[in-house]
Design goal:
- The chain is an all-alpha fold.
- The chain contains 7 helices and no strands.
- Helix 1 packs antiparallel against helix 2, helix 1 runs parallel beside helix 3 and helix 5 runs antiparallel to helix 6.
- It is globular and about 65 Å long.
Length: 213
């Protein structure tokens, strides 16, 4: 069996990290969002490295072409599904992102079957960066909320704001949580808009592939 090269190992590592990121988001323990953010950041770094190394050292493989974009989608969509469960993301932005990925992937598969390789355009890269930035921002805001809770109540994870006996602390945490929630939702809607633009641009640029489907 041919030895797996470094870029493919990085891609595989990104896929392996996904369940750990999910667990860190959903399992409540002190500063779990910080842990999830660090793991997500590491996974995102592998995304930047694997393609760069593959192109630099001429290590592009069929596995990499297939697994690299798949790993990106699995990572981002998994995190956003967890955010929806926790009320940190609306369902509509997630549906828009998933719909775009299915549409673009379908066109790429058809083009690949015809021997045509479709490279990612600028808007696709902007879409990916915006997703990563928005997700990391949400992780940072939730971590900041835990730090404030720790400083005001002595514990970073009060079960509910209403359970806090200090009404001033409860009010501050509730207000901060609402502000962070609005910012997070706004960021994800911006991501959804960029996702739509990148999807439309991608389909328009490859309309000849679609017309032959």
């Amino acid at each position: 069996m041919k030895k797996m090269n470094v870029p493919n190992r990085l891609t595989l590592l990104r896929i392996i990290l996904v369940p750990f990121v999910i667990a860190a988001i959903l399992i409540r323990f002190p500063f779990h969002f910080l842990v999830a953010g660090i793991l997500f950041g590491v996974a995102s770094i592998t995304d930047a490295l694997d393609g760069r190394i593959a192109r630099r050292d001429n290590l592009i493989t069929d596995f990499g072409k297939f697994a690299d974009p798949l790993a990106d989608k699995i990572l981002v969509i998994s995190v956003l599904v967890c955010f929806v469960k926790l009320g940190l993301c609306g369902a509509i932005p997630l549906i828009i992102i998933i719909f775009r990925e299915f549409a673009v992937t379908s066109v790429r598969l058809v083009a690949s079957a015809k021997g045509k390789v479709i490279a990612a355009n600028m808007w696709g890269k902007v879409k990916t960066v915006s997703q990563i930035v928005a997700i990391i921002a949400i992780f940072l805001m939730r971590t900041a909320l835990e730090i404030v809770a720790l400083s005001m109540t002595g514990h970073p994870l009060p079960s509910t704001v209403s359970a806090i006996t200090d009404y001033g602390a409860a009010g501050t945490l509730l207000l901060l949580s609402q502000i962070f929630g609005i910012i997070g939702q706004a960021l994800l809607w911006i991501v959804a808009i960029i996702t739509v633009i990148s999807g439309v641009k991608y389909l328009v640029d490859n309309k000849e592939v679609i017309s032959d489907m």
